[in-house]
Design brief:
This protein has 99 residues and is an alpha+beta fold. Helices cover 31% and strands 29% of the residues. The protein has 2 domains: 40 residues; 41 residues. A 4-stranded antiparallel sheet has the order 1-2-3-4, with no helix packed on it. Strand 2 and strand 3 form a beta hairpin.
């Protein structure tokens, strides 16, 4: 029974010390402040031309690119690849059905 009492007291002390250490780490990080915000880059907004009458069917974004899936007025399809860093059109991919 004596060993059980000692074990309970030791675990209680460990809990108090653990919470104190956790509180100290959190308080230290808050007082130092978080990381400084990165410099905000301006977005270069260039107009992206799409064919007249075309409709954007879908859009997919990657880490540095956006791909627009266009439905053309004549029924054809086209993919437009846009660079997010510059806001410029990188290219166009024509999609044609195989006969």
């Amino acid at each position: 029974m004596r060993a059980l009492k000692i074990l309970v007291i030791v675990m209680g002390v460990m809990l108090v010390v653990g919470f104190a250490a956790l509180f100290g780490v959190v308080a230290g990080r808050v007082s130092r402040g978080g990381p400084t915000p990165a410099a905000v880059r301006e977005f270069a907004s260039l107009p992206i031309d799409i064919p007249r009458g075309a409709r954007i069917e879908a859009m997919t974004a990657g880490p540095d690119r956006v791909i627009l899936a266009l439905l053309l007025p004549d029924g054809g399809r086209q993919l437009v690849v846009i660079d997010l860093a510059r806001g410029a059109r990188l290219g166009t991919i024509e999609l044609r059905p195989v006969p």
